[in-house]
Every structure is written in structure tokens, then in C-alpha cells.
Specification:
Blueprint lengths: L7 E3 L6 E3 L3 E6 L5 E4 L7 E6 L2 H10 L1 H6 L5 H27 L2
Antiparallel strand pairs: 1-2, 3-4, 3-5
This protein binds zinc ion (ZN).
The site of zinc ion has 7 residues, from strand 5.
């Protein structure tokens, strides 16, 4: 028996189940905006990706985000998200290490 239930989510690209904290959430807000949500708390339909740009590219190739978000993600938006993804990757990795150090 596990001491504590860790919420798991599936990466939409590689289909791997991971603790929510180790995934980057991409959200489609009720306003119809698609953006990266590092807080994981923004309202809207979310899609999760491992914090790896390879997975982002895989998701783009498979149009996995379109399916997960039930919306068309056009090429420009994928470009913008990829740029943001690369930007937040370092920040995300740092936060992950910090979480890992917690008892
Ligand atoms: Zn993945």
C-alpha cells in the first residue's frame, strides 16, 4: 500500500504516466487561448507533457495537443508554444529538483 496517493497524468506525446508535478500543463482557457500553465491551476481543458522539448515536438508531429485540447492548434501557435516550452524548461527542471529535495 502506498502511503500517499500521487496524482498521475499521462503525457500526451509519449503516453507515459507521470506524477502531475513532473509534467508541464498546456491549457486551453475558456477564452480560447492556448498557453503553458506552470501553475497547473488555470481553468480550462489541459494537456500534459513531460518537461522535455522532444515530447513537445512529438506531440506537434502527432497533433496530440489538438486532440487533447479538442481544438485546432495551428502552426503559428505550435511555434509560439515551442518557444515558450524551451524557455520554461529550465525553470521547470529547477522546480522539479526543489520538489525532489522536499522530504
Ligand atoms: Zn512525454
Amino acid at each position: 500500500m502506498r502511503p500517499r496517493k500521487i496524482p498521475l497524468r499521462k503525457c500526451v506525446a509519449c503516453q507515459e504516466m507521470m506524477p502531475k508535478k513532473e509534467l508541464i500543463r498546456i491549457v486551453r482557457t475558456p477564452e480560447g487561448e492556448t498557453l503553458i500553465d506552470l501553475t497547473g491551476k488555470k481553468p480550462g481543458r489541459g494537456a500534459y507533457l513531460c518537461g522535455k522539448v522532444e515530447c513537445f515536438r512529438l506531440a506537434r508531429k502527432a497533433r496530440a495537443l489538438d486532440r487533447a485540447l479538442k481544438a485546432t492548434v495551428d502552426a503559428d501557435l505550435y511555434d509560439r508554444l515551442e518557444q515558450d516550452f524551451v524557455k520554461v524548461q529550465d525553470q521547470f527542471e529547477a522546480a522539479k529538483e526543489l520538489n525532489a529535495r522536499e522530504p
